Amino acid sequence: MLTGFDAKPLNTLYLDKNLIWHTLVQAYSRTNRVDKVTKQFGQIVSYRNIKKWQDDALRLFSGDGDPNEYLLENYEYYVQKWINQEPILRKVVRTVDDAGQLQSEDEIRMFIIAFRTMVGTLATLKTFSKFDWADLAVVMDEEEYEGFKSWYLYYKDQGQNPNPKVPVPVDVDFDIELVRTDRINVVYILNLLKAVNKAGKTDEEREADLDLILREIERSDNESLRAKKDIMSEFVRTRFYDLSDDADIQAAFEEFEKERQKAEIEEFSYENGVDYVIVNDLLMEYVFSGQLSEESIRKRLEAYHLGILKTTVLTGKIQEFIKQSYIKFKAEGE
User: Fold this and answer.
1) How far apart, in whole angstroms, are the C-alpha atoms of residue 156 and residue 184?
2) Long-range contacts of the stretch 206-210 (C-beta < 8 A, 24+)
3) Cβ contact 2:19 at 8 Å
4) Does the global pTM surpass 0.70?
5) What tens digit of pLDDT does each residue of 266-318 get?
6) Which of 25, 156, 200, 329 is the most exposed place for a label (fewest CB within 10 A)?
7) What is the CB-side half-sphere exposure of residue 24 using CA atoms within 13 A?
8) Are the CB atoms for 294 and 286 separated by under 8 Å?
């Protein structure tokens, strides 16, 4: 299981044999394959006292002879690091509500950098088997962290929006893999709605459950759900209450999506003076082929005799609308 064995997600090696030199380094290295930014390290749980052999091997095979060069500090070190980083974030935003009130590019940049730094420390802490949110809660508990994360993701979404509500800096890396868990996705939300619909609860109980679901939608870091965030929230608020107890929630949501997409295509077509059929056909072409050439759009616009400049501008608008519509309305997992 050592020579040639490479499983990047592998996190922990349980060791109950004496190892020395290259065999020790080789064994340890099974755990430190970089899977993604949230898994850059591994753990060794040793039932043998081989620290001296470990240090000798790492000293021999490390670049500068330092046996600690490839070892993390202990768990307490990173807990303290988290505690030390918290005041830096609080100087920018004292509370979660403050994080949602940022208006200037400099403020948003400082918030992104400060919170991203804490997220990086949290990712390291989570590689330890003894990780416990209670150790971090002395300065920031998990609920408050999730609140800050929601605004962090909001600014990330705004940075991808052609007409952002706030001036998100383009020169900052959100390092989104650090915060993503993907647990709260479209299927997860639909299953919660199914449970609420069949539970036979009172109106007050349903109201409380749906309020929690709406908050789950807001704090999700799943890319597909964040693209559908507004649609799902509107579905809950305007359509869900009218469904029968035995309704197919997924089918109802898919029908609601189709209605919303059709309405958005109609609105775009009307505002830009283009036939609905043309825009819809181009969207279907993109859905099935994954491609949308400018030439294909221009050919469909020839009948309008718009001239080169207007055709070019409208072609760009159609391309952007179709790509955004596809992202927004595509099915989970596509």
Assistant:
1) 18
2) 210/236, 210/240
3) no
4) no
5) 999 999 999 999 999 999 999 888 888 899 999 999 988 889 999 999 999 99
6) 200
7) 21
8) no
